[in-house]
Every structure is written in C-alpha cells, then in structure tokens.
Amino acid sequence: MTTQARLTLFSPAKINVYLRILGKRSDGYHDLETVMLPLDFGDEMIFEPRPAGLELICDDPRLPVDDSNLVVRAAKLLDATGKITLRKRTPLAAGLGGGSSNAATTLRALGRGQLVEDLAAKLGSDINFFLAGSAALCRGRGESVHPIPCRLRATVLLINPGFGISTKWAYERWAEVSAGWRAAPPDVTLLLRALVEDDLEGVSRSLYNSLEAPSVRKYPVLSLLKDTMRQDGAAGVLMSGSGATVFGLFAEQRAAERAAEKIRERFGPSMWTQVTRIALIAR
Q1: Which residues are catalytic?
Q2: Average predicted confidence (pLDDT) for the chain
Q3: Cα 116 from Cα 110, distance rounded (Å)
Q4: Element (H, E) at 118
Q5: Which of 37, 49, 194, 279 has the most crowded CB, counting CB atoms within 10 A?
Q6: How many whole angstroms from its chain centre is CA 135?
C-alpha cells in the first residue's frame, strides 16, 4: 500500500509525566504504568508515491535509514512503496519518543483501512500511544493505551544535554538498584485528576520516573538542569522516559523562555532547549 498523493504529516514528541516500572516480564520487557503527553513540538514527515521501491531520507545523518529504523520496518509491514522524507527536530535517544512517533505516523499515513494498532504493538512499546493521538495512561509494556482528557495548559521546557541514554542501559540499571533506594511512587490517580482539572501544582507533586535515579547518578548534569529550572520558576521537573531529556512545567511561557536563555548561558550552546506546549486536542 502507498499514498496516492504527496502527504505531509506532523510527528509529535512526548513526555512521560509518570513512569513506574512494576517488574520484568518473562518476554524480557517490563510491565509499566506510565502517563504520556503529546507535545506541539516534533518532526515533519513527507510521504510521496512511487510505483516500486521504498526509500527513507533524513536530514540528520546520524539516523540510520535502513531496516533498523522503525519507519522502514513499519512501511515494510504494510508492503508499502514510496519515498519518505523525515525532517528530524527531536533529539536522538532523548526519551521523547521520536522513533516511535515516526513509526506511528508512517502507519497512519500508509496503513489506511488496516488494523495498524496490532502492527504497532509488534514494532515497539510506545507506538500505540502515538496512534491514539492524545494524552494517555499506558500499561503492559506500553501498548495498552487508555486515553485521558488532559486539560493542562502549562508551558513545557525541554532540555537535552547533548547525549543520549540507551533504553536498555536504563532498564538494566533500574534492576540493579536496591529496593531501599527507590523512591515510593505517588498515586497515579492523583496525577490523572490533576491533568483533567488543569492543576499544575497537583501535576507537579505527582511527577515520577523509576528510571531517573540511576541516570542522574551517572549523569549529574541532569540534576543540575532540573535544579536550574526549579530556581527559574518551574513548578515541576522530571526526566522524560529513559532520558536524557529533562523537562520543566511552567505556568507562563515567558518564564520558560527566560529559563531556556539562562540554561544556554550557563551550560553553553551544546545544551539543546525547546519551549513547547502540551497538545490538548487529539489528532
């Protein structure tokens, strides 16, 4: 299957405002309870018809464009042909779901009339979330998606220190952490209620990520970035997914922009920053 005409689609990034690992499964994955929010920031993908052959082009030369890329794997599952151009804006290996979002966008563009949710679950854990197109509570290994009516209007400041953290490494380090060192997770129902009620303080009190502690221990700069955002007015700060991106939630956009300026002044131009908002309307 392929598109009949040139199609340009937005491929959003996400943040995890809650990520609790419940344990390791027999299939090697981990059972999760996570709340993810899509953002108004992300990549752009262009799909162009072609009678035969499949080609992926990306403007970031660091990203492979062979069968190791989820976009290519998604397209091949659909027996698609065509040219796919990926304009990459989301940092690589950043905990923002860039690859999963790109795969979901590919399934949405090329898989019309097919049960793409089943294909998504085979490809990766976060792809079903991006297909849902809204904030969601996800369980299992992430493929069980329960949309939530998020009304949080906070501004989000994303900061990436210029390096990625392997998801495999993050989960392995979590398993090595003693039970006494793990912070007790807050009740996820309190977070869900705060998201629905546009309660920024309530959301900030309920932020949690099981993977954050081992990452911060190895990369102290993540803690410095979080502390800087707090000092500059962030109501809540957290590492997203397996990192290395950290985010701050701000009541006002201008405060987030000032915080981004201070981050770049203090840590230098290698510190990637992006001010964005939560996508409140499902696509």
Answers
A1: 14, 126
A2: 91
A3: 10
A4: helix 116-123
A5: 37
A6: 11
State both tokens at 277.
Answer: 């908002």
- What length is written for the chain? 283
Nearest-angstrom CA–CA distance, 278 and 172: 30
Q: Give me the sign of the Cα torsion angle 31, 214, 242, 199.
A: positive
Q: How far apart are CA 185 and CA 206, in angstroms?
A: 8
Alpha-carbon distance of 261 to 57, in angstroms, equals 33
Say how far apart CA 108 and CA 233 lie, in whole Å: 38
Q: What are phi and psi of 9, to 5 degrees?
A: -130, 150
Average pLDDT over residues 193-197: 97
Q: How far from the centroid of its chain's Cα atoms is residue 19's Cα?
A: 12
Signed CA dihedral, 48, 50, 54, 60: sign only: negative
Place 2 in a pLDDT band, splitting at 50, 70 and 90.
Answer: low
Query: What's residue 283's pLDDT?
Result: 37
Separation of alpha carbons 137 and 276, rounded Å: 21
DSSP 205: H
